[in-house]
Each structure stands twice: as structure tokens, then as C-alpha cells.
């Protein structure tokens, strides 16, 4: 068995700190990581760049690409608001010999694990509490009170999926969470696994 390029999935409720951990790991050259850019059906927000932050497809094109089976996973996160991982994105990064890291919804993360059970490590980032999560979301000042309430309600459901992940990292001390994330990913990418055929 050879050391094959891997998939590293980070999932968490909004505000738990998964994006911070992913960005930290991307600075570690020894992990040989590349970030998988998700596709989104929504419009770009101010400052977001197509092909860098997301592939902004629009709802119609997203639905057409679902029909064409272009996605490894996708999720309708809110009504008519889709996010997903394009097969060609993972193939592009694996073609560069990179381990692919994801910052995606819990449902999408678990679907990737089903598709590539041997080559995928799923990590759930757990906030100290739902209350702390609410405080973090308010501090961002990027969303309305209504949107924050939706995210907090969704967080309880997402937290219930944590036991299905390979590893749970509780993010109450950021430097400890970063160290644990690094060590966990390093061990996994150095592990020899058998190849998965995408189902």
C-alpha cells in the first residue's frame, strides 16, 4: 500500500472556529495541503472572489450540475441555497499530488467519508457551548439577528452528528486546538491506506 493523497474534512456549527483551524493547517508545508473551493448557488458577498472563496454558480446552474452528477456531495443548506464539492475540484488538486482540506457542512463532510472511507479523515470542531457560539456569531457583526438565530438553532442539530466523525476537537483554547488539529492531520496523511473507488 502506498501513501495516497488524502481528504481532510473539517465540519462544525458556524462560529466554532473550523475556518481558523483550516487556515492554520494550510500554512504547514509538511502537510502538503490544498484547499477545496466549494461551489455555491448564492451571490458573492462583498469582498468575495469567484474561484477563490467559492465557485459562484447561481441556483439554475447549480441544479443543472446536480442533474449532471458533477458533485461529490452537495447540500441545500437553506431553501434554494446550495453548497457542494465538485468532482473536478478534488481531481484537480489530487492531480497536483496534494492532500485536500475541506471546510464544509456536517452533512457534506459525512457524505465524503462515505464516498472515500479509507482516504478521508473527518474532524468535528466543537464550540465550548451553544451560548459561546452565539456570542462569537454576534461579535462577527456580519449577519442579522434573525440569521444568527437560524445558525444557533441549526448548531444543536449539527452538534448531535459529532459522534459520527473520526475526531472531535473542542475549541475552547485555540492554541491547543491548533496543535491537536496539526498532530491529528499529520498522523493521518502519513498513514498508508488502500485506494477508494468513488461510489
Structure description:
This protein has helices at residues 18-26, 59-67, 87-95, 106-115, 130-140, 145-160, 174-189; strands spanning 7-11, 33-35, 39-40, 55-56, 71-78, 81-86, 99-103, 120-126, 167-170. Helix content is 40%, strand content 21%. The relative contact order is 0.23. The chain has one domain (7-189): Rossmann fold (3-Layer(aba) Sandwich), CATH 3.40.50.300. By secondary structure, it is an alpha/beta fold.
How many structural domains does the protein architecture include? 1
Count of individual helical segments: 7
Residue share in β-strands: 15-25%
Largest sheet: 5 strands, parallel
**CATH fold descriptor:** Rossmann fold
CATH arch. level architecture: 3-Layer(aba) Sandwich
| Number of strand segments | 9
Kindly name the structural category.
alpha/beta
Q: Ends: how far apart?
A: 21 Å
Q: Estimate percent helicity.
A: 40-55%
Order of helices and strands: EHEEEHEEHEHEHHEH
Features:
199 residues, alpha/beta, five-stranded parallel beta sheet, four-stranded mixed beta sheet, 7 helices
Give the helices and strands, then pairings.
Elements: E1 7-11, H1 18-26, E2 33-35, E3 39-40, E4 55-56, H2 59-67, E5 71-78, E6 81-86, H3 87-95, E7 99-103, H4 106-115, E8 120-126, H5 130-140, H6 145-160, E9 167-170, H7 174-189
Parallel strand pairs: 1-7, 1-8, 2-7, 3-4, 8-9
Antiparallel strand pairs: 3-6, 5-6
Helix pairs in contact: 5-6
Amino acid at each position: 500500500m502506498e501513501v495516497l493523497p488524502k481528504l481532510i474534512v473539517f465540519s462544525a456549527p458556524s462560529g466554532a472556529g473550523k475556518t481558523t483551524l483550516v487556515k492554520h493547517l494550510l500554512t504547514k508545508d509538511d502537510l502538503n495541503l490544498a484547499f477545496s473551493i466549494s461551489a455555491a448557488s448564492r451571490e458573492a458577498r462583498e469582498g468575495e472572489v469567484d474561484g477563490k472563496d467559492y465557485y459562484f454558480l447561481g441556483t439554475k446552474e447549480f441544479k443543472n450540475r446536480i442533474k449532471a452528477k458533477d458533485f461529490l456531495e452537495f447540500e441545500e443548506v437553506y431553501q434554494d441555497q446550495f453548497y457542494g464539492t465538485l468532482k473536478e475540484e478534488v481531481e484537480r488538486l489530487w492531480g497536483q499530488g496534494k492532500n485536500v482540506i475541506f471546510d464544509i457542512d456536517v452533512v457534506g463532510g459525512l457524505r465524503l467519508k462515505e464516498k472515500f472511507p479509507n482516504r478521508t479523515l473527518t474532524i468535528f470542531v466543537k464550540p465550548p457551548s451553544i451560548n459561546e457560539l452565539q456570542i462569537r456569531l454576534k461579535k462577527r457583526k456580519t449577519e442579522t439577528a434573525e440569521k444568527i438565530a437560524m445558525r444557533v438553532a441549526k448548531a444543536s442539530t449539527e452538534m448531535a452528528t459529532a459522534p459520527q466523525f473520526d475526531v472531535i476537537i473542542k475549541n475552547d483554547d485555540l492554541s491547543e486546538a491548533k496543535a491537536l488539529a496539526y498532530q491529528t492531520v499529520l498522523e493521518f496523511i502519513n498513514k498508508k491506506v488502500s485506494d477508494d473507488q468513488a461510489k
